[in-house]
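Worked problem 6 (solution included).
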Amino acid sequence: MDLIQHPLVFLHLPKTAGQTVHNTLAAAVGSPLVSPIRVHSQAEGWRQFPPGYGLYSGHLDMAEAGHLPKGRFTFTVLRDPRERIASFWLYLRRDALRLDPTHLALPSSIGRRRALDWAAEDYFFSGDAAWQTFIRDHYDNFYCGYFGSGRFRGGGAIRALPAPAAIARAREGLAALDGVFSIGDLRPLEAAMAERYGLAVRFDRRKDNAADLAPETRRWPILVDALGSDAARRRIESFVERDEVLLAPRHAWT
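Solution. The predicted structure is:
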């Protein structure tokens, strides 16, 4: 199948095995066919998906992919929303420890720096308005915000809706995708790649950007234990309420 006319579009959401999926697919299709845009902030609007490539993969706004050929296969990989939140926070802390002090002090490293230096309760629930917008956009019912708005930083408008309306919008966004897969079992994605594109890929042969924790270790209890009060623990639970309803009809997303 001609990948230019039938491109792969992987909407990579943070901490859902995205690096493993991207690197495996990029190796299979070849680097000349891989779009260089990996993050929505690298380009505005439709330029996140420049024409002429066979694989678009990254933290990209799904709302901007409409100009791509109609034969495209657009998909994402999901994870239990609690585990995704905790894994993202733990990843930033771990990554901060790997940076030298000069790089850690850069404005672009503020998220890593605060994840490392601030207590968990302060990281999630304090800071100025700009910081709280960052937290809300990346953690607070992120799936509803992303699939409801089609954008990484579009969750604010979705959060303002009553829960039933927000969840309904997100379900419409999910339903528009050609494939929704689980981090817990990527064999259906392997099968889809083989059937549609003739690509023989195995996602279990590499673990890119993996945490230092054992795969079976639950991340959520680590975060809950790190929060300093019962009030903070109740607040962090609200960050998954809508997402859990959104994903409830589907299989487990471990």
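Discussion: The radius of gyration is 18 Å.
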